[in-house]
Every structure is written in structure tokens, then in C-alpha cells.
Amino acid sequence: MELYDIVVIGAGSGGITSAVTAVGFGKKVLLIDKNKPGGECTWSGCVPSKALIHEAAKIHNARSFIKDFAYDSKEAMDHVHNVRETIYSHENPEALSKLGIEYLQGEASFKDSHTIMVGEREIRGKKIIISTGSSPFVPPIEGLDSVPYLTNESIFELERLPENLIILGGGPIGIELAQAVSRLGSKVHVVEMMETLIFREEAEFSKAIAELLTEEGVSLHLGARATRVTTRGEKVVLAYEKEGRESLVEADTLLIAIGRKANTEGLGLVNAGIQYGKKGIQINAKLQTSQSHIYAIGDVVGPYQFSHMANVQGILATQNAILPLKRKIKYNNIAWVTFTSPEIARAGMTEAEARESRSDNIRVYEYDFNQLDRAMTGGETREKMKVILDRRGRVLGLSVMAHRAGEMIGEAQLLRSQNLNFSRMASVIHPYPTYSEVFTKIGKRVMVDNLLNHPLVKIFRKKNPNE
Ligand SMILES: Cc1cc2nc3c(=O)[nH]c(=O)nc-3n(C[C@H](O)[C@H](O)[C@H](O)COP(=O)(O)OP(=O)(O)OC[C@H]3O[C@@H](n4cnc5c(N)ncnc54)[C@H](O)[C@@H]3O)c2cc1C
Ligand SMILES: NC(=O)c1ccc[n+]([C@@H]2O[C@H](COP(=O)([O-])OP(=O)(O)OC[C@H]3O[C@@H](n4cnc5c(N)ncnc54)[C@H](O)[C@@H]3O)[C@@H](O)[C@H]2O)c1
């Protein structure tokens, strides 16, 4: 029996971060994965999708000059595969070993709450961290089990993209890939049961991205509930129901992107007495499972399924496993980006969420980038920032749709995490012409409003209505 201070199951974003943190504390660490290290982010998530999006943007630009610009999607897929390998070279078993992490390839399963089996090997961990991630949720749609379909686990393995593709699901996976695959020359249909794409975002941003995708040639079937799948010759036919009527959509293949299911199967959680349900492993705010020496992080617990969230949870769970003082996770400063072009970034609440939780006790500022010189230089008209503040001027939420939105959201995160008043932005110098100037512009409006809202100013203005 081998004994480790910390055993981590799953070498994805969360697991690798946990292992690196634990060796930083001088602990003896074993990291186990049934596949190569890297997890979803490296092999079938963030990395390949962003590499594909990068290639798609290049071809989209080329086609703005030469309409019939010839391109073989094999080049894009080669790029995707190369990028994955480059990133893997920083997290392969040799790289992990140099960091002091022992890596074991194999499927892990609990024998009891302190013992993990990997094949015949019996491993004991004083503390254990589970980071087994999630898998694509495949719905029980009639006929789906008898047609070939793609998920995020198989699409990036292709040598070439299909000539036409149906994407089931208009969430972040669905729309990032819809735009990229369409820009690379395929005909794409998106079938989404809600009336909008990325329904969790600000409504006007969801609408704007739907309009843009339609302009780019993606066919959107919104408010459409998939009912059955059949084949016609080599083609896949998806039937959906909308307003009581059935419609059919046909393509070479189908990509399923309608959400995730937690990877709890085969882990022997019952043997260890770990409680779990449909949404994944149950944890407390300190990230402990029902066995207090076993922690769980990342997609297998949620509530936010992002790489950066798995990292944050990974660091906290490891610190809690090692240090006597245990801290609670806080999700109030979460942010994310949907990497369409333009990007849509979000920090905190939408306007609707803020109104629901704070009634109308909020201040909303909007800025259309068609008034912003930098955006004008690129002829951009749809871009926009929306800021939701509390009465005093602190940020409750900020959403931005712009080509640099993913980078811009960092500034909002700084304000939020430091609990700063948005008016502080009024005096921050942003070089001209940049997208980030919008922070100064909104900051100045907030500063003036803060002043006008000051009780003394209000009394003065009441007494001197003409001042
Ligand atoms: C197409 C796509 C694009 C995405 N883009 C982004 C993005 O741009 N930004 C972002 O933040 N997030 C993105 N995500 C989400 C992100 O990939 C996940 O949130 C993140 O990878 C979760 O990390 P994790 O450590 O929880 O799990 P994973 O990275 O999935 O790692 C889990 C690991 O556990 C292993 N494992 C499972 N069971 C066992 C077992 N019994 N024994 C041993 N090993 C096991 C698996 O092999 C896997 O390697 C994207 C997801 C998809 C699908
Ligand atoms: N840029 C990023 O950070 C990024 C990118 C991709 C994925 N992700 C992560 O991966 C997670 C999963 O993404 P996702 O897009 O698969 O899931 P999702 O849950 O975010 O979106 C799925 C969509 O499918 C729709 N849907 C569900 N069932 C359907 C049905 N039967 N027919 C038609 N439509 C249906 C839903 O209404 C929803 O709009 C995300 O929540 C996110 O955490 C992040």
C-alpha cells in the first residue's frame, strides 16, 4: 500500500492546479487520470475551441477581401491539434514530474474513504481531492442512439470539418462553434429550445449575437424542441417542434451541445460514503464532501463550469486540506467570456438579475461603442457595455460585447474584487484610442451622478433650483 499526503483524482484544470498547490506546500502528491493530463480544457474544451476560433477569424477576414477564398478546413484542424500538443508539453507527465508531482495513468475508484484502487494498485491518501470533471449530456431523443453524432469530445478529433452541421444547443459551446465552423466554410444550423441564444446573458447581447450569426449565414431555429433523429441516405435529419408544428433540418452530422453531466460514475463514491446526486458531488462551502478529508472541485461539483473556476476551487480545496484554518468559497466575483466575435464578457449580475434581487434600487449605465473612436476605426456598430451599480456606485454587474471584451472584463473584476466605486474610473488614464476608454467615460457619468445624489447637494439644489 502506497501512502500520500494528497491524492488528486483527475488531471484537468482543477486537478493539476490542486497538485501544483500541494507540492508548493512540500506535500507528497499523487495525481491520477485515466487519460493524458490536461483534461477537457486542453483536449476537448477551451484550448481546441479557441484555436479553431482563431483560424476562423483569419479566414473570415480573408473572405472579406476575396469572397471565394479557397480553404481546406484540414489546415484549421491541424492548427487545433498543434496548439493542443504545445499546451500539453507544459503539463505532460515529464513536466509534472519536474514540478515534483507523481503522475499515475489509470481509472481511479474508491475502495473505502481512505483507499483508492487504480487497477491492482492500492493507494492511500491522507487527504483526497476529486476533480473528475463533466461529460456532454446526451438527451434521450428518439433515434439518437442509432445515428452517429459529434460532441465536444469528438469534434476536435476530426481531420476536416463536415460540409454542413446541425448544432443542438445554443449555449456557449453551441454558438462559439457555430460561428467558427460557419466561418471556416460549413453550412451550420443551430437548434435551440429557448427563444434566445446564450439565454443567461443580457437580453440585448443575446439578440445582437443572434442577428450577427444570421448575417454570417448561420441558420437559427429558436424556440425549437428536438423531437427525433433519423437518417436519409448519408444525411442526418433532426425533427423539431416549434409552436405545435414539426420541422426538419438535414446535414452531414449533428453536434450535441446542450449542457453537461457530472463525472461521478465508476468512482465508487458509495464505497467511500460520499454523497452525490444528479448535479454532481455534494460539497459544503469549504469544498469538503460528506467525508471531511475528501474535497471535490471543478465541473464535477459546479455551480460554475469554467476552467478558471476549477482553478480557484483547486487552490482553496488544497489549502483547506493542508492548513488548520479552512476558508469558504465565495462566488460573488465570478466572471466569464463567450468567445464569439465580438466576444461577450460578463462579471456579476445582469440587469434583470439585479432588479430581481434589489428591486429598482440600482443604477444602470450603457455605452454604445458606435460613439467610441476606437470602435469607429473598425466600423464596429453592435458593441456595447452595460454597467449595473448599487445606489452608491459600486459594481453589481458589468457586461460587455466587444472585440476585446475578454481583456476588458479584467478591469471590472479589479473594481469588484476591491469593492471600489465605479467613479474611481473617472480619473484613470486610458490611452487613446482604446476600447477601454469606455471605463473612463462611464466613470465620469457615475462621478457626476454620485455628486448629484449626495444629500448636501440635494438640499442645496432644492433650495436653489436654478443653480
Ligand atoms: C467546447 C468547450 C469550450 C470551453 N471553453 C471554455 C473557456 O473558454 N473558458 C473556460 O473557462 N471554460 C471553458 N470550458 C469549460 C472547461 O473546459 C471546464 O470547466 C474545465 O475543463 C473543468 O475542469 P475540471 O478539472 O473540473 O475537469 P476536466 O478538465 O474535465 O478534468 C477531469 C479529468 O478527470 C479524469 N477522470 C474522470 N474520471 C476519472 C477516474 N475515475 N479516474 C481517473 N481520472 C478520471 C478525466 O479523464 C479528465 O482528464 C469549455 C468547455 C467546452 C466543452
Ligand atoms: N467560453 C467559455 O467559457 C465556455 C465555452 C463553452 C462552454 N463553457 C462551459 O461549458 C458549459 C456547457 O456549455 P453548453 O453550451 O453545452 O451548455 P449550456 O447549458 O450553457 O447551454 C445549453 C443550451 O442548450 C439548450 N438546450 C437544452 N436542451 C435542449 C434540447 N433538447 N433541444 C434544444 N436545445 C436544448 C439550452 O436551452 C441551452 O441554451 C457552459 O455552461 C460553460 O460553463 C464555457
Automatic annotation (TrEMBL):
Domain Pyridine nucleotide-disulphide oxidoreductase dimerisation residue range list: 334-440
Origin: domain of life: Bacteria
UniProt domain FAD/NAD(P)-binding: residue ranges: 4-313
TM regions (residue ranges): 6-26
Cysteines paired by S-S bonds: C41-C46
Residues that hold FAD according to the record: K50, T132, G133, S134, D299
Pfam families: Pyr_redox_2, Pyr_redox_dim
Keywords for this protein: FAD, Flavoprotein, Membrane, NAD, Nucleotide-binding, Oxidoreductase, Transmembrane, Transmembrane helix
UniProt GO molecular function: flavin adenine dinucleotide binding; NAD(P)H dehydrogenase (quinone) activity
Cofactor note: Binds 1 FAD per subunit.
Residues noted as binding NAD(+) in the record, renumbered to the chain: G169, G170, G171, P172, I173, G174, I175, E176, E192, G259
Cofactor: FAD
Sequence similarity: Belongs to the class-I pyridine nucleotide-disulfide oxidoreductase family.
Annotated PANTHER family: MERCURIC REDUCTASE
The protein, known as: NAD(P)/FAD-dependent oxidoreductase
Organism for this UniProt entry: Oceanispirochaeta crateris
